[in-house]
Design brief:
318 residues, two-stranded antiparallel ribbon, 11 helices
């Protein structure tokens, strides 16, 4: 039995591997809630990168060098675009004053939700592409628009739970508690079951990831339309986001040119989608372009730091 051109067993095996890694992560290495320090975060970032490269090597021997290069390029694109998520995660945690020891738990379950949401979006995208080839041009135009919007967006992201559709649904379905209840998502107060503030934070993280996925997933389709490569590169990229967040959360303000670099990546990928039938761009050129833009963005940010201005964020409200 095949699903989207690949045997069912490979899909089952891959998802079983990912679930195994996540269970080991939470139940063995992060069994007790604690604040993740920079050294620990850097070590885990290295682990996830090594695992991703090891899987890339598996792709090389199983599907060939072209597929391996597509996986690596897709992984780098998704990884770079997902960095923008980290800035918003930081704002969400700051807004709700989430204790550092509970942040890993939120991001862990956020990854589980992302597996389902992104798998669904990828399946939908592959189906649309197979049925309507012109949808790639629509994706290209959308990426150019998204890149231009990101480049010219001057105002800082504002966290407003009142405008978040997920938060609105939670408020309708559950009673809300203002406490964190030792890292639980649900607790009992005065004999009544209530959703904790941590659950509300999780919902905001999930909905934020969904919004970012609408930009990043079409970008990978510019590199390959093989659903297995799109899905696996996407998943491996977001698996390391938690560790990357804790490694960089104190340094995020330094990379102020990164958003401009990410916007340029989106625009270039969108252009690639539109002209690929006329002027095919090799995957290795895309890989070098993405890596070069990221490098220049980071170096420029470090060489020309901007003045930081202290601003107190709004108080959490329910």
């Amino acid at each position: 039995m095949t699903i989207f051109g690949h045997e069912l067993w490979i899909w089952v095996a891959f998802n079983a591997l990912i679930l195994f890694l996540l269970v080991v992560d939470l139940r063995v290495f992060h069994r007790r809630a604690h604040e993740v320090r920079v050294r620990e975060a850097l070590a885990w970032s290295a682990v996830w990168i090594v695992l991703s490269l090891a899987f890339n090597l598996f792709i090389y021997f199983w599907m060939g060098s072209a597929a391996a290069l597509q996986f690596l390029t897709g992984y780098l694109i998704e990884k770079s675009l997902s960095v923008d998520n980290l800035f918003v995660f930081l704002l969400i945690f700051s807004y709700f004053k989430v204790p550092a020891r509970y942040q890993h738990r939120v991001l862990y379950y956020g990854i589980l939700g992302a597996l389902i949401m992104r798998g669904t979006l990828i399946a939908l995208g592959v189906t649309l592409i197979h049925q309507f080839q012109w949808i790639l041009d629509v994706f290209g135009l959308f990426l150019i628009y998204a890149g231009a919007r990101m480049a010219f967006q001057r105002q800082q992201t504002v966290i407003d739970p009142d405008r978040n559709i997920g938060v609105k649904v939670v408020r309708r379905l559950f009673r809300l508690s203002r406490g964190y209840h030792e890292g639980k998502f649900f607790a009992r107060e005065d004999g009544k079951s209530m959703a904790t503030l941590l659950f509300l934070v999780l919902v905001m993280v999930e909905t934020t990831d969904l919004v970012f996925a609408l930009d990043s997933i079409p970008a990978i389709f510019a590199i390959t339309t093989d659903p297995f490569l799109v899905y696996t590169s996407n998943i491996f990229a977001i698996l390391g986001l938690r560790a990357l967040y804790f490694a960089l959360k104190g340094l995020m303000d330094l990379f102020h040119y990164l958003k401009l670099g990410l916007s340029l990546i989106l625009i270039l990928i969108g252009v690639k989608m539109l002209i690929d039938d006329v002027v095919p761009i090799p995957t290795w050129v895309s890989l070098l372009a993405v890596a070069g833009i990221l490098t220049v963005s980071v170096v420029a940010s470090l060489l020309a730091p901007r003045r930081s201005s202290d601003s107190d964020g709004p108080k959490p409200s329910l």
